[in-house]
Amino acid sequence: MSGPALATTAAAAGAQPDHLLLDVRGLTKRFGGLQAICELSYQVFRGEIVAVIGPNGAGKTTLYNLLTATYRPTGGTMVFDGHDLGRLSPHEVTELGLVRTFQNIRLFPNMTALDNVKVGRYCRTDAGLFGALTRLRGTRREEREIEEQAMETLAFVGIAHRADELAKSLPYGDQKLLEIARALSTGPRMILLDEPAAGLNSGESAELVELVRKIRSDGVTVVLIEHDMKVVMGLAERIVVLDHGMMICQGTPAEVRCDQRVIDAYLGKAV
Amino acid sequence: MNVPGESVVSDPAGPVRRAWSEAKGIAALRPMRMTSLVVFAAAAATVPLWVGSNYLIRVAVVACIYIMLSLGLNIVVGFCGLLDLGYVAFYAIGAYTYAFLASPHFGLHLPWLVILPLCALVPAIFGILLGTPTLRLRGDYLAIVTLGFGEIVRLFINNLDRLTNGPKGIANLDTVSIAGFKFGSPTRYYYLALVFVALMVVAIRRLGDSRIGRAWGAIREDELAAKAMGLNTHSLKLRAFATGAAFAGIAGLMFAGFQSFVSPESFTFGESVIIFCMITLGGMGSIPGAILGSLVLVILPEVLRPVADYRYLLYGLLLILVMTMRPQGLWPNKQRRRELTERAER
Ligand SMILES: Nc1ncnc2c1ncn2[C@@H]1O[C@H](COP(=O)(O)OP(=O)(O)O)[C@@H](O)[C@H]1O
Ligand SMILES: [Mg+2]
Predict the structure, then answer these.
(1) Which residues in chain A come in under a pLDDT of 70?
(2) What number is the ipTM of this complex?
(3) Contacts of B3 in chain A (CB under 8 A)
(4) B26 in a domain, yes or no?
(5) DSSP-assigned letter for residue A47
């Protein structure tokens, strides 16, 4: 399935081809007359924390929807670890190890926190109808593993004590953490966080920063969309700035902060 | 729904109190559930002893058949959230599979134990054939397509005289017998049906509490998020559809063997509606609810027999009354019950 032609292009262009994980080239998405994403090219390397910032309506969420095959691009290519994402369906993208969270929380509200995370294990396990009906030893072992791993993941994000509560009855901050736990339980290589700090107080934001660092040191590459500049500046090694679907600048936090275009388009307004 | 930052002011004793009230709830529930299970099983096992007439035992068999149908529809609608209005078609396919293979109609008289798996398999295959193109449709469209499918199957049965003997139906089906033991009397047949109900209850419980069952729940709750979390929703929905169809097929087999006769008029759209009413009345997604709902809607018309003309009027009124006063159903499933109480706590 991996397009060799595309992989070669990626290798030729990337500075550190071995570490290249995501390679987006000329990505375009039109909604009728609206150019939500316009000729966007950028790379993400293994082990990075990259922030995507930009004003509302810049196309950040649309970018995630394209990467996770929720939307089909109008043009351009997206290659994740040698696989062309443009041809996959959403669950195949997740199976490849690219997973997302949602800007507006989308948990399974009437399931417990634990079951939400267990659902994330689906793509790494394989008991079928027969296994469910017979509950032979293999299935029981798998169920135990799912349970253990789900509990570990809940503990990892710090909400193990919420395991048996319904997702929708959790406080807002814990719901956001649960979404991250559910995404992590799919065993990703790269996680796309969509405004994880939105609606959190400063204490919770600080904890989120720590959590994201922990996620990265577990070997998961992180891309995050975020408006909270404290979070962005504290986490990101590289920042990509979008405006009107176009990348107006990318660089280290220090570079981006001083870039006149960024100040005009985004930071200026925010202050 | 949530005010950002709301969690800061959350009551610090909240979790403790919640854990405490939950512990109390479980302690109060467990013995009650055990008792009700034992009472229910004992009552079910002794039905032929305490109901006086063969007629009433036959009513009990019919109740068992509806319970099987409700349990199966519960997988499709209650677990996976798919609005299947043509469910009765799979019931018909199961019944006719038995009629074709165990009657003078084609002169075939296969052993019951050979027909049994076929009556699950054939409807499941039809379920997959119907589901493959249609399960990509959104809820309300799916409802219309399945409704159409139900009618088409009935019309085919009605008009394919050569194959199905049309509206006259197929009569003189073989008496059900397993290894020479004949289930000729209503009492014997009742026990056979009861065993199948018990097996199906175990099966559906296991399905609900499994990797696949959780995935079905995720689809019901938020299909887009389910996809993003790596679920092949189309294949999962197909499996829900096929499993529900297999349950209906077995119910069809039981029905055909019991009546020893099948005809298209047993498989109208009205039947699908009644099965829907049963699981809604009992509580969507709840196994005891499906059983209770089926019992109420089978027994009620019998109880109301004396008021003959007003029977279905009262039946309808009662349904409306229950659903307005207890929208969660008579015996809602655990999670829905929690949903309602927790909403009240907020
Ligand atoms: N499904 C859609 N249909 C039409 N327009 C859309 C759709 N999704 C996003 N857009 C438009 O694309 C632009 C970018 O949106 P979005 O990616 O959500 O921005 P943000 O950077 O705030 O996340 C907006 O103008 C939005 O209205
Ligand atoms: Mg957005």
Answers:
(1) 1-18, 268-271
(2) 0.90
(3) 172
(4) no
(5) T
Count CA within 13 A, CB hemisphere, residue A126: 2
Pairwise CB contact (< 8 Å): A91 & B233: yes
Residue A18 pLDDT: 65
**Structural domain includes residue B285:** no
Residue B137 lies in a domain: yes
Ligand 2 centre to CA of B222 (Å) is: 19
Count of CB pairs separated by less than 8 Å, A with B = 134
The pLDDT of residue A42 is 92
Q: Give per-residue pLDDT as tens, B83-142.
A: 999 999 999 999 999 999 999 999 999 999 999 999 999 999 999 999 999 888 877 888
- Cβ-nearest to A182 among B7, B229, B342: B229
Tell me: the pLDDT tens digits for A164-202? 999 999 999 999 999 999 999 999 999 999 999 999 999
Q: How far is residue B47 from each of residues B124, B190, B202, B225, B304, measured CA to CA in Å?
A: 32, 9, 21, 47, 20
Q: Which ligand 1 atom is at minimum distance from the Cα of A225?
A: 23
CA–centroid distance for B184 within its chain:
26
Q: What pTM, to 2 d.p., does this model score?
A: 0.88
Task: Name the least confident of A102-106, A165-169, B27-31, B265-269.
Answer: B27-31
Contacts with B, A 17-56, CB within 8 Å: none
What is the distance between the alpha carbons of residues B79 and B216, in angstroms, rounded to a whole number?
6
Task: Give residue B335's pLDDT band: very low, low, confident or very high (50, 70, 90).
Answer: low
Domain limits for position B175? 51-268
Please count the structural domains in chain B.
1
d(CA A208, CA A199): 12
pLDDT mean across residues, chain B: 85
d(CA A133, CA A150): 22
What is the β-pairing status of strands A190-194 and A98-100? parallel
In a domain, B256, yes or no: yes
Asked if A92 and A99 touch (Cβ cutoff 8 Å), the reply is no
Number of Cβ within 10 Å of residue A137's Cβ equals 8
Contact A166, A109 (CB under 8 A): yes
Closest residue by Cα to atom 11, ligand 1, is A36
How distant is the alpha carbon of residue B246 from its chain centre?
11
What atom of ligand 1 comes closest to residue A32's alpha carbon?
Answer: 4
